[in-house]
Amino acid sequence: MGTLLDGLAVDTASDRAVFRQIADQLRAAIQDGSVSEGNRLPSEAQLMEHYGVARMTVRNALQLLEMEGLTRAEHGRGVYVRRRPPVRRLASDRFARRHRKEGKAAFIAESEQLGAQPDVDMIQVSEMPAPPEIAERLNCAGPVIVRSRRYSLNGTPVETATSYLPADVAKGTPIADPNPGPGGIYARLEELGHTLERFTEEVSARMPTEAEARVLAMMPGVPVFRLIRTAYDVEGRAVEVCDTIMSADAYVLNYELPAH
Amino acid sequence: MGTLLDGLAVDTASDRAVFRQIADQLRAAIQDGSVSEGNRLPSEAQLMEHYGVARMTVRNALQLLEMEGLTRAEHGRGVYVRRRPPVRRLASDRFARRHRKEGKAAFIAESEQLGAQPDVDMIQVSEMPAPPEIAERLNCAGPVIVRSRRYSLNGTPVETATSYLPADVAKGTPIADPNPGPGGIYARLEELGHTLERFTEEVSARMPTEAEARVLAMMPGVPVFRLIRTAYDVEGRAVEVCDTIMSADAYVLNYELPAH
DNA sequence: CAGTGGTCTAGACCACTGC
DNA sequence: CAGTGGTCTAGACCACTGT
After folding, report:
1. Contact indicator for A218, A237 with CB cutoff of 8 Å
2. How far does CA B142 lie from the centroid of its chain?
3. What is the CA B150 to C1' C12 distance in angstroms?
């Protein structure tokens, strides 16, 4: 006999909807460890049987948990308690020049330090007119080189990034190649004379679009960070805008603020 | 005749589920402005009639939109396109000393600059042992003074904040009063000799807990930022940790990163 | 193949809203 | 009161998974 559901029943006299009560009990079982990460919950049929309710009621309960990010349903297999991914803490000095010395791009270097296997795929490079949001930040209406790619950690996609650089800066340079070489595009920018002075980051959070959820293999109930980074060179010119979508359960962003 | 649904139909030959197709069409209508903010979508009954589907199918479609934060359902009234709240952009120098000169706390000063009516309520001050997360950041195991409050903009709650200060710093000072006086607690800390040197912020995002959703009157499908700020004085001591929960649709966080 | 979740139908009763 | 969304039942067929 499964011990998980033993003694659990709904209170039909309660104001709380039956499917919410069922969700409450399953949530409690997950949070107190009665069902551990990666394990299967009872099937819909078993829950219907146990609680004596219709399938829709059980499905509504399970959907609540899925929306909360506690479970994932796998078609034909069952409903499983989600494993929490490892969290990357992004340091506020992650683009400091000293971290580029070893010739590695920021993502690769950080991941190896974390002991996780980094991966980059879906690399695409093209040229197009600057979208308004980008043109505004680059302060440049001309065409831009667009570099997009997806980053994964231990095989799990965690982030997509799209860089926009003015074509008059990047065209015909290694930056416009799929592989920009050691140290990434920031190293190339500095070689081209655009010594980097500072970055600004604009951070927002929202639920992913359907396309984002697909590309990042996101679980329901997990928001994304949208991080728009603008890189300025020592002359004060914006030389790159990077539009990043990150699975929010995989990141903590760290920043330093001055008090003066 | 309503023009919204004219010509819209589902493709039963498509692989895409009917409720997703209906959601797609409603989403498109919202995004291209065919139904504007605050307006009502067709009722479930109208959608059933128009598309010739069962109520559950319509409800699944509407639930998708609600999860995406595009709509809100009001019991007995209808389903409405959500109004987007005004967005506050938090500058990276928002805690700079020069912004305290006018004797206003950060939130009040920023809001007035934005032309919005700020409000602070649910102010509570108490003393307790430091929770582990806080003790770690304060590097101090002793008791802490806890100040919690809720901030609203034009009557809409947008943020709750809980500050923790070591009792040996704050006890018996105006910081432990509900009203800490002009310039807020950072001004008081500096008067007490803790000249502030820098702040760190740790930013994460997730869906709100039920309690957070209630206090912040959050719409479904909107995540929260959790921002943990630690304030350090010139001697390097952590003198305050502020744990903030912000409705993510009301904020964009701006930061500056050095390149060196 | 049996068991799983994904989608859909066709009803029902209820609670809330506004007239 | 009529109209709205909230909850629930009792079925059905399908697609996917593992044996």
Report:
1. no
2. 30
3. 44
Query: Tell me, what's the pLDDT at A1?
Result: 45
Residue whose CA lies closest to nucleotide C18 C1': B77
Query: What order of strands is seen across the sheet that includes strand B224-233?
Result: A88-90, A251-258, B196-206, B224-233, B238-247, B156-166, B143-153, B118-129
Strand partners, B148: B124, B162
Give me chain A's average pLDDT, please. Answer: 88
pLDDT in tens, B147-168: 999 998 877 889 999 999 999 9
Residue A69 per-residue DSSP state: T
pLDDT confidence of residue A190:
93
pLDDT at A101: 62
Q: Residue B199: which of A68, A231, A259 has the nearest Cβ?
A: A259
What's the first-to-final CA gap in chain A, in angstroms?
65
Closest Cα in chain B, distance from residue A222 (Å): 6
The pairing of beta strand A251-258 with beta strand A88-90: parallel
Residue B240 CA to chain centroid, in angstroms?
21
Surface of A (130-159) touching B: CB under 8 A: none
Q: A184 near A175, Cβ under 8 Å?
A: no
User: Using CB atoms and an 8 Å cut-off, which of residues 41-80 of chain A contact chain B?
Assistant: 56, 67-69
According to DSSP, residue B208 is labeled P
Q: How confident is the model at residue B26 (pLDDT cuts 50, 70, 90)?
A: very high
In contact, A106 and A227? CB cutoff 8 Å = no
- Ordered alpha helix ranges (H), A52-144: 55-67, 106-114, 132-138
What are the structure tokens assigned to B211, written together?
């309690």
Confirm if B94 and B106 have CB atoms less than 8 A apart: yes
pLDDT at B1: 44
What is the Cα–Cα distance from B79 to B63, expressed in whole angstroms?
A: 10
**Can you tell me the distance from the alpha carbon of A171 to that of B221, in angstroms, rounded to the nearest whole number?**
41
Phi, psi for residue B108 in degrees, rounded to 5:
-65, -45
Which of A63, A3, A75, A51 lies closest to A27 in space, CA to CA? A63
**Residue whose tokens read 């790159």:** A240
Report which residue is nearest nucleotide C9 when distances run from CA to C1'.
B54
CA A120 to chain centre: 14
**pTM, 2 dp:** 0.82
pLDDT of residue B232: 97
